[in-house]
Amino acid sequence: MCKHVFLRLVEQEKDPGFWKEWAQRTLKNALTLQDLNKNVAKNIILFLGDGMGVPTVTAARILKGQLSGQNGEETQLEMDKFPYVALSKTYNTNAQVPDSAGTATAYLCGVKANEGTVGVSAAAVKSQCNTTRGNEVTSILKWAKDAGKSVGIVTTTRVNHATPSAAYAHCVDRDWYSDGDMPAEALQSGCKDIARQLFENIPDIDVIMGGGRRNMYPRNTPDVEYPGDKKHNGTRKDGRNLVGEWTDRMKDKRGYYVWNRKDLFSLNPSNVDYLLGLFEPADLPYELERNKETDPSLTEMVDVAIKILRKNERGFYLLVEGGRIDHGHHDGKAKHALHEAVEMDRAITRAGLLTSIYDTLTVVTADHSHVFSFGGYTHRGNSIFGLAPIMSDIDQKPFTSILYGNGPGFKFVNGARENVSTVDYEHNNYQAQAAVPLSMETHGGEDVAIFSKGPLAHLLHGVQEQHYIPHVMAYAACIGQNKNHCHTNSGSPSLSHISPTLAVLLSVKWLLC
C-alpha cells in the first residue's frame, strides 16, 4: 500500500465519525433487505470452495486487498457482499471430520452420506460394490435437467473428482476414477467407474469443464498435450475412448470438445449448445503456476459456461468448484490455497456481472475446513504470509502468522524447530510450519459459511445441516420434490411483485454483460 494512502487511512480511523458513518451506511443497506426477494429462481449457481473454511475466507480477503495495494483487512471479497450468511454443519454420517465425497453428496443430493462415497445414501458401504444398487440418490443437477434447464459443471480439479462426481455418479468409492482404478470384483459385480458415469448417467450435460483427460482414454494412449510423458497416458482397461464417443454423439448437436485455452476462446458461445473441455490429464495447475497460453482460469471457464447456459429460456444450474484450495492446504502450501480462493472470488464477481439477483440464486459455500490458522498478534497490513511480530518465548525463534495443526510443514533441524527466518517463507511452495508431522495435512471439522443472494436466499440462515442447501436451491427454482408453492391457479410459475423500474434496470444490466 502506498505510504501516503496508508497514513490517510490511519488518520481517518482515529476519528469516531469515520466508523459511525460506515456503520450507518451498512445499516441503511441492511434495511433494504426487509423486502424479501420471493421470485422464482430461473437460474441457480453453486460455488463450492473445496476446503474453504472461515479462516481461509478471512485470509483470502486480506490477500485480495494486499494484491491491490491495500492493508487487506478492510477489503471485501465478492462473497462478503452477499446479503445472507449461514453456517453449515459438515460431518458425514460416519465421520466427525468429513471428506469431500460424503459432503458433496449432502450439498448436491440433499442426503448425508458416508465418507468416501458419492451419490449414494448412508446405506451404501465404502468400496463394497454390492451395496450400490438401491441406494442411489440423485442430485440437484439432475433435478434441474429433468425440469428442462441447461446444466453445467466447472472445476479446477478432474471432472470426475469427488465434488463434481456427486452431481452425476453413484459410486461407493470416490477413487474409482476409471475402470483402471477399480478392483476386479467390483467390475465383475457390475459397478461402473466415475468417468464412464459422467457420460452415461446424464448423457446430455450441457457444459463440462475441468481436468481428467487420462481417465477418458484407453490404457497407454499418449496424451494430446504431453505425448512423451507416460504418467499422463490413458488409464482405461475397457478400451473405450469416452471423449471420442461424446464427440460422435454431439457432432450434430452443436457440441464441441476442446483441450486448451486457445480452442476454448475460438468458440462463439452463441453457436455452442454442448461443451466438453478437458484441459489437463489430471487436475488443472494451481493458479500461480497456470500456463496462461494453454489453460483457462476458473473465471474464464465460468464466463464461457454462463454464456452458453443462459441461452435456455428455462434457465440453468451451474456447479462451480474452486477445487485446488483444498489441495494447497493438504500440501501445507498456504500461498497456493489462498490464491486459489481469490481466483474463485473473481469467478463469483464475473458470474454476478452475467446474471441478475432478480432471477438468479447464487450460493457460495465450502464442503469442509482445514486445520489452517493465522494469528500471532500481527500488525495491521502485515503480509498474510509474513512473520508474527514476536518471537516464541519457549525456543526464542520467529514464526509465521500462518500455521497448520498438522501436515508436511513439521520440520526439525538439529533436534529443534526450524528457524523460519533462514528460509523464504513467502515462496509460492513454502510449506507452513505444522504442529504434528503428516505427509498430508488434514481437513478440519468446524462449521463452514454459506453465502447467498437472489430469490429466496434468506432461507439460508442460521446454523443448518449441510444437506439442507440443495433443498433450498431446488425450492427457489421450483424443481425437485417440493413444488407446491410454484404455481398459480393458471398453472404458471408464480413470481413476487417487483417494481417495473427495477425489472427494467436488471434486464438492461443482463443484456449489457
UniProtKB/TrEMBL annotation:
Homodimer. GO terms for cellular component: plasma membrane; side of membrane. Mg(2+) binds at residues 50, 161, 163, 321. One of its GO terms (molecular function) is alkaline phosphatase activity. It comes from Sinocyclocheilus grahami. Pfam families: Alk_phosphatase. The active site is at residue 100. This is Alkaline phosphatase. Keywords: Cell membrane, Glycoprotein, GPI-anchor, Hydrolase, Lipoprotein, Magnesium, Membrane, Metal-binding, Zinc. Belongs to the alkaline phosphatase family. The keyword Transmembrane does not apply. It catalyses: a phosphate monoester + H2O = an alcohol + phosphate. It is a lipid-anchor; GPI-anchor. Binds 1 Mg(2+) ion. The lineage of its organism: Eukaryota, Metazoa, Chordata, Craniata, Vertebrata. CDD domains: ALP (cd16012). Its cofactor is Mg(2+); Zn(2+). Zn(2+) binds at residues 50, 326, 330, 367-368, 443. Residues 227-240 have a biased composition (Basic and acidic residues).
